[in-house]
Amino acid sequence: MAGKRTATMAVLLVLGLHLSGAQGRNHVVAGVQGQAVAQSQSTDENGVTTGECAFTDKQGQPIRIRYQQTPDGQIQANVIEGNVPDPVAALRVCRQSQSHLQDQLQAQQQHLQRQQENLFYQLRQQQQAIFNHQPAFPDFFN
């Protein structure tokens, strides 16, 4: 299972790198333990959004959807990889996964930033304690 998960992450990473090479496209590649998602899209001068979204389903199988969305919200979607009966529903799951993972990563980043700030504060406190500490000499030295 670990090998399959690693392979899936590699596929999504390659997809993300491929998608990031496209000019004029918005893309997101994200992953946390056991989950991965990649999305890329561009909008033309008529407001039609074209893109791809890839994710791992609950069974760990890679799913890849290519889609077009008109300005009025109509979506046409095709499965590029995987086996899903409803490509539009799979696209919805992919977008929700991307949004959820992005929120998780942002929360983790904020948590790490707070920890870093706390560590810097503690370090400054320790430095001040060291520099402010005046060794007390016995009275016979005075």
From TrEMBL:
It comes from the Eukaryota. Residues 1-24 form the signal peptide. Keywords: Signal. This is Putative SP-like 3. It comes from Homarus americanus (American lobster). The lineage of its organism: Eukaryota, Metazoa, Ecdysozoa, Arthropoda, Crustacea.
